Amino acid sequence: MTDDMLPPIAIIGAGSMGGAILHGLVSSGIAPRIVVTNRSVAKAELLAGLAGVESIALEAEPDGNTRAAATADVVLIGVKPAMVPDLLREIAPTLRPGTLVVSLAAGVTIATFERILGAGIPVLRSMPNTPAVVGKAVTGLAQGSTADAAAVAVARRLFETCGAVVEVPEAQIDPLSTISGSGPAYVFLLIEELTRAAIGKGFAEPEARLMAEQTFIGAAALLDATGEDPAELRRRVTSPKGTTERAIAVLQEARLDEVFARATDAALDRARELAQGA
């Protein structure tokens, strides 16, 4: 294996997020050996044809999780949060010392992983978002107490196959989830409302959707291509005493800054409730 290649990887619970990361890894060409598990044969078969991937169905191979974990140098945990402790107890005896374990599970702390897996297993906690499906994720990455810089570097390269990576202390994972984790839903809501506004102006729904969706897609692409501050790009669209200036004034009067602060605060409160099992 060359220096630019990732070591053998297991994804235990390759559902929507684990599956998105899997596709990023396969497309990257830097992960030559990946073992994934799913509960059903039907789901496992959907991934079986991917290059370099061994897809295990637990209903056909009940000890598939332990086999996958035993053969990997990096293990991603993608099962539902409530299932994590039992899964960790299941695979802990088969993990080789130094195996890197990376959590995809919202609300499960690094301390929980480290307590069950023991001191010889470095742990990182991640928080990807749904644009991982199209290679445009933002993934927050938090380092456990025994994970060194080399472990972080491996995890960063892994997640960079499906987007951008932001390294944060674990205390910032939940706040990050209120921005990049929930953020796609905020954008989709804005597109919904702009589409409704267009329909209210007399446009048919297909044209209204096209205008709203492509405006967001185009604006994001312009921001990405230019690297400009969004406030500067907004100023360039907002001609003095023009129509856009009048519209922006209405939006600013609605105090969007306060609305987004309240929304993200509410999401953070709920993340903390979930972490406590509420």
From TrEMBL:
Subcellular location field: Cytoplasm
Residues annotated as domain Pyrroline-5-carboxylate reductase dimerisation: 170-274
Catalytic reactions on record: L-proline + NADP(+) = (S)-1-pyrroline-5-carboxylate + NADPH + 2 H(+); L-proline + NAD(+) = (S)-1-pyrroline-5-carboxylate + NADH + 2 H(+)
Listed pathway(s): Amino-acid biosynthesis; L-proline biosynthesis; L-proline from L-glutamate 5-semialdehyde: step 1/1
Example GO biological process: L-proline biosynthetic process
Annotated InterPro entries: 6-PGluconate_DH-like_C_sf (IPR008927), NAD(P)-bd_dom_sf (IPR036291), P5C_Rdtase_cat_N (IPR028939), P5CR-like_CS (IPR053790), P5CR_dimer (IPR029036), Pyrroline-COOH_reductase (IPR000304)
Superkingdom, taxonomy of origin: Bacteria
Binding-site residues, NADPH: N65
Residue ranges annotated for the Pyrroline-5-carboxylate reductase catalytic N-terminal domain, each copy included: 9-107
The EC number(s) this enzyme carries: 1.5.1.2
Chief localization: cytoplasm
PROSITE patterns cross-referenced by the UniProt entry: P5CR
MF terms in GO: pyrroline-5-carboxylate reductase activity
Cellular component GO terms held in the UniProt record: cytoplasm
Keywords attached to this entry: Amino-acid biosynthesis, Cytoplasm, NADP, Oxidoreductase, Proline biosynthesis
Amino-acid positions noted as binding NADP(+) in the UniProt annotation, renumbered to this chain: I12, G13, A14, G15, S16, M17
NADP as UniProt keyword: yes
Top EC class for this record: oxidoreductase
NCBIfam families: proC (TIGR00112)
Family indicated by similarity: Belongs to the pyrroline-5-carboxylate reductase family.
Task of the protein: Catalyzes the reduction of 1-pyrroline-5-carboxylate (PCA) to L-proline.
Protein name per the record: Pyrroline-5-carboxylate reductase
Organism this protein belongs to: Microbacterium terrae
